[in-house]
Design goal:
Blueprint lengths: L1 E12 L2 E13 L4 E5 L6 H8 L7 E6 L2 E2 L5 H9 L1 E4 L11 H11 L4 H14 L15 H13 L5 E5 L7 H18 L2 E5 L3 H7 L2 E6 L2 E7 H5 L5 H6 L5
Parallel strand pairs: 3-8, 3-9, 6-7, 7-8
Antiparallel strand pairs: 1-2, 1-4, 4-5, 9-10
Helix pairs in contact: 3-4, 3-5, 4-5, 5-6
The chain binds adenosine-5'-diphosphate and magnesium ion.
Length: 245
């Protein structure tokens, strides 16, 4: 479904360049939830931003359903971007818009008519369990509710891929659960492929089928979570052990 092939991305820095991604190769199965984990600065957000086409890699390929996204431009690039819904890192809702208004924004941009828009926003608020918060503004919502609205907004244009960058990093464990439930429903009910960037192994344990471990811009481990946890030498198993009961 998503294949990332030898992706390289550098940023200019004092005294040379930082290779944020140093030849990343990765496969995400269609309809799966893939966790991207790794220490701070390992390249997780850069990888997510490249897959979301918000950042252009120096070299390498990103294929979604066989199409290499890196080579697209103009209308084809815009169409490919709509296939990928993004929950950005941090607080990303517009404060001057209600929850429903935030979810509607991508539909307004895409020129979807009013009645269709309202119906779709209703479905999405229902999916994330916040129908009763439609008219609330972001500062009237809890952190977890805001993230669930951000997920609903990312799903508005019916993407085939949902990318969430640290969607639970500011949340307590209980609230984290409500956001993970929503990501899981997106996969189960809408069939989207989910990529979730996280430094929290409890998140991986709860919802991921596959996991990719990044370190210094390189993938040091990638595979089915079940295979990796049963391999005593794997980094994923070692990192997960403290998170297992
Ligand atoms: P993570 O999300 O895993 O914490 P990032 O992808 O944000 O890591 O960053 C990876 C590396 O790339 C870091 O060394 C970071 O400083 C650098 N980097 C990321 N974005 C930029 C940017 N826009 N300009 C310069 N350096 C960047
Ligand atoms: Mg990051």
């Amino acid at each position: 479904m998503i294949t990332v092939d030898n992706l390289v991305k550098s940023f200019p820095a004092r005294g040379g360049a930082v290779r944020a991604l140093d030849g990343v190769t990765l496969e995400v199965q269609a309809g799966a939830v893939c966790g991207v984990v790794g220490p701070s600065g390992s390249g997780k957000s850069t990888l997510a931003r490249c897959i979301a086409l918000l950042e252009r890699p120096d070299s390498g390929a990103i294929r979604v359903d066989g199409t290499d996204l890196v080579t697209l431009d103009g209308n084809r690039l815009r169409a490919a971007r709509r296939q990928i819904g993004v929950v950005p890192q941090g607080d990303s809702l517009l404060r001057q818009r209600t929850a429903a208004g935030n979810v509607a924004l991508p539909l307004e941009t895409a020129g979807v008519d009013g009645p269709t828009r309202r119906r779709r926003v209703g479905e999405l608020l229902d999916l994330v369990g916040l129908t009763d918060k439609a008219a609330s503004y972001p500062d009237q919502l809890s952190g977890g509710q805001r993230q669930r609205i951000a997920v609903a907004r990312a799903l508005a244009a019916n993407p085939s891929v949902l990318l969430a960058d640290e969607p639970t990093s500011a949340l307590d464990p209980e609230t984290t659960g409500s956001v993970l439930t929503v990501l899981d429903r997106a996969r189960a009910e809408l069939g989207v492929t989910v990529v979730v960037v996280t430094h929290d192994m409890a998140v991986v344990r709860r919802i991921c089928d596959d996991v990719a471990v990044l370190d210094g811009g390189r993938i040091v481990e990638n595979g089915r979570l079940l295979d990796l946890v049963s391999d005593v030498d794997s980094r994923t198993a070692n990192a997960l052990l403290p998170a297992l009961d």
